[in-house]
Specification:
Layout (H helix, E strand, L loop, with lengths): L22 E4 L5 E4 L5 E8 L2 E5 L5 E5 L4 E3 L2 E6 L31 E4 L2 H18 L2 E4 L6 H8 L7 E5 L7 H11 L6 E5 L28 H9 L6 H12 L10 H14 L4
Parallel strand pairs: 1-7, 8-9, 8-10, 10-11
Antiparallel strand pairs: 2-3, 2-6, 3-4, 4-5, 6-7
Length: 279
């Protein structure tokens, strides 16, 4: 007769605790991870060069090495490099345009697009950069628009040398609106297009939902807007380094054009069409 209990009933103790074994998990942006050693819990917001950055629910971030020593839903895991997804067809650029496989950047056109500041230029490059390289369009930042009329005159717009300008806070009665009118009536105005969005700063063109807030906070008149926003959101705002870190955090949440407000998307597309129109 077969012994259904085995030869040694003490060989396997069903009450003995079994230590769970770690399993490998490729890292994904947004994955919530707990560091088993420190107890820090956060979502993965960045992965590069064998390290990852976790952000907790209070907005604090910490770097950690990729590898063992983490928990997901209480289970031990060994985090590995992100899995490379197979490209979908057709592929699209971050701006929503159909990507052109193997396309090389064109020689830069004589036409240009100017934006107000560094942050504006970085956001336009992040979303429309691939399209602009294919079209041969260079984006430069001005550092403000107070001297825009003189800058346009120095550029000398003309046929085949068009200039598009993106301005912050271009609303009726604003200083920016008066500058835009002066440019359109000045030298080269026929070959210059000044458009703008209604936001105080390019930060506001990012959908606030991407940062987990319902709306951008209001900042009292007379207070620096970026410092005021950081203070309202509980982010450091002591110096320019803190402001730069805040912008990296905001821009890091932008995946593509769907994370931007329509008022910016339409104006950038309008400028690209203007400077690339046939002579």
């Amino acid at each position: 007769m077969a012994d259904r209990y085995g030869s040694d009933i003490l060989a396997d103790d069903p009450h003995r605790a079994r230590r769970p074994r770690s399993v490998e998990r490729p890292i994904e942006i947004g994955m919530v991870v707990e560091d088993a050693q420190t107890g820090f819990v956060g979502a993965v917001v960045r992965v590069e060069y064998g390290r990852m950055e976790l952000e907790d629910r209070y907005g604090r971030t910490k770097p950690f090495p990729v590898g063992p020593g983490y928990l997901i839903d209480g289970r031990p895991v060994i985090l590995t490099a992100p899995r490379k997804a197979a490209p979908a067809a057709p592929m699209h650029t971050a701006s929503g345009s159909v990507a052109v496989a193997g396309a090389r950047a064109k020689v830069a056109l004589a036409s240009r697009i100017y934006v107000e500041g560094r942050h504006d230029a970085e956001l336009v490059e992040q979303v429309w950069g691939e399209d602009l390289r294919i079209e041969g369009v260079v984006v430069e930042y001005l550092g403000g628009v107070d001297d825009l009329a003189a800058i346009v005159a120095d550029f000398r717009p003309g046929p085949g040398r068009r200039l598009g300008v993106l301005v912050d806070h271009l609303v009726t009665g604003s200083k920016e609106a008066r500058i835009a009118q002066r440019v359109s009536r000045g030298p080269g105005g026929e070959h210059t297009l000044v458009v703008g969005h209604p936001f105080i700063d390019i930060w506001q063109a990012v959908n606030p939902a991407r940062l987990g807030i319902e709306a951008w906070p209001g900042v009292p008149r007379g207070q620096d807007w970026k410092h005021g926003v950081c203070a309202a959101l509980g982010w450091p705002d002591r110096d320019q380094a803190d402001i730069a870190a805040a912008w990296r955090r905001i821009r890091g949440r932008v995946r593509d054009w769907t994370d931007l407000e329509p008022e910016l998307i339409g104006r950038v597309e309008e400028l690209i069409d203007f400077v690339t129109a046939p002579v």
